[in-house]
Amino acid sequence: MPSSTIRTERRDAVQIVTLDRPGRRNAVDGPAAEALGRAIAAAERDKGVRAIVLTGAGGTFCAGNDLKAMAAGDFPTPAEDGPPPMNVTRAPASKPVVAAVEGYCFGGGFELALWCDLRVASTTAEFGALNLNHGLPCMDAGTVRLPRVVGQARALDILLTARRVPAAEALAIGLVTRLVEPGEALPEAVRLAAAIAALPAPALDAVRRSVTEQWSLPEPDAARNETRLALALLAGADAGQPAPPPSAASS
């Protein structure tokens, strides 16, 4: 069902999912989290969607969890096996996700951006675990993903100070990969997602899975997993499935 808090738009093979609560700076309450989960699940099921862009309306990505809604009990009770506050962050999406970040990207919104594969930000963007200022711990895997993106020491510097990270610093430490002028984060993210969507999906999926699955594996096992994924792809090509181009197969 469509939601007034989440908007979706299709541009060729790219699905844009927009957090749309500008009056709350796109802070997420329980219903918005459920709607976000439905929107991402629909994009994952749609065979015509090859990449997803996640963004926020009104010049803000996401200010985090809606603290007023939390105080009113408008969130499911957290549980180890239940959905996290942002609903989708427990496991990687099945398709590449690019975050387009303008303005605030705090708390659960910061963790949501870290869930994405890539982050494009404008110079207005600010990142941080500001939830810690309110005594709220991270529950959307921010403490897991941030060290993997920027390294443990930089992650602890950001988390243990609960400070705001400006866009220029985010670019310098690899938290974002592309920095653009204000208002250009979404167009740039869509261009990036379209470039991803234009490449052969099976090869990209094998590469992406190898990268994301390696963290729990010793290096030799991670290398074997890379080979296993590649051989499964090539076996599928031999069985009549679309094969990667020669340059990709031989690289």
UniProtKB/TrEMBL annotation:
Coiled-coil annotated residue ranges, if any: none
Transmembrane segments: none
Top-level taxonomic group: Bacteria
Family indicated by similarity: Belongs to the enoyl-CoA hydratase/isomerase family.
Record-linked Pfam families: ECH_1 (PF00378)
SUPFAM superfamilies in the record: ClpP/crotonase
Protein name as annotated: Enoyl-CoA hydratase-related protein
